[in-house]
Amino acid sequence: MWMPSMSELLLAQRRFAKGVIGGTAQAADLHMLDGDPARNRELLAVYRGNAVANASKALSLTYPVIEKIVGEEFFSGLCRAYWTESPSRSGDLNEYGEDFSAFLAAFPHARDMPYLADVAQVEWCVHHALHAADHVAVTLAQLGAEPAESIGQLRFGLQPVLALMQSQWPVATIWQQHRADYAHEINIDLNHAECIAVHRLGLRVEVAVLSDAELALWHQAQSGQPLATMLDTAFAIDESFDVQAALLRAFTREFVISLHA
């Protein structure tokens, strides 16, 4: 029995993928399939439709706020265009859609909604955090138990999924007011920038608004800087920065999962 070589198999797989993704398969590209080429094209179209539907469902689950903002019909078109440009490369559809934000930023028909890309970035961070492993948070009592003379040299280990973001748009407000459980009137001032943190709190994911100084504080922590440097950076942005309040918020939100010198 004839068996294709690895190079022949790879070529056949690429031709099949090209036909599924772009719908451009010719009869010569389908020689590995039995039966009438015209019938095979019809079957390939069905296969393509199922693949697009599955990818669209995955994107809908990951980006429900984007879908709510643009509407189902427009979102469906976005999904088809995105799938053609960036088909799934993993057998796990939970991993699909990581670069959807970049796609939206370049998509010509979304130019009148320039905030969409940043909102999509928030949603991807939420999705990523939702599927992350559990963690054990450090408490303020543990921080308070550290020797006073060495506390400035402490480094904070943060949640691996903690995502810090600065946007020219009110992305946290947009995200919150377009969630399925939001029961109030939507009222968003687009002329308002926001700094945010996406983080796990127990089994749920939250999007918290931060001040510029808080964002800088936790960026320094993520880069491995000690508490003294973190505070210097925050105070350089805001001379009246409230350290106690910022730390209380962060530890309540379970940002910190380890302390080390």
Q: Identify the strand order in the major beta sheet.
A: 2-3-4
Average pLDDT works out at 88
**Count of individual domains:** 2
What percentage of residues falls in helices of 4 or more residues? 40-55%
Query: Element order, helices and strands?
Result: HHHHHHHEEHEEHHHE
Major sheet attributes: 3 strands, antiparallel
How many β strands by DSSP?
Answer: 5
**C-alpha geometry:** elongated
List low-pLDDT spans.
Answer: none
- Indicate the radius of gyration in whole angstroms: 24 Å
- Kindly estimate the percentage of residues that lie in beta strands according to DSSP: 5-15%
How many H/I helices?
11
Distance between the termini: 66 Å
Textual characterization of the structure:
- This protein is mainly alpha-helical and 261 residues long.
- It folds into two domains: 1-87, no CATH class; 121-261, no CATH class.
- The chain contains eleven helices and five strands, in the order αααααααββαββαααβ.
- The protein has helices spanning 6-22, 37-62, 64-70, 72-85, 100-106, 116-130, 140-144, 171-177, 212-222, 227-237, 243-252; strands spanning 155-158, 163-167, 194-201, 204-210, 256-260.
- The strands form two sheets. A three-stranded antiparallel β-sheet has the order 2-3-4. A two-stranded antiparallel sheet has the order 1-5.
- A hairpin with a 2-residue loop joins strand 3 (194-201) and strand 4.
- It is elongated, with a radius of gyration of 24 Å.
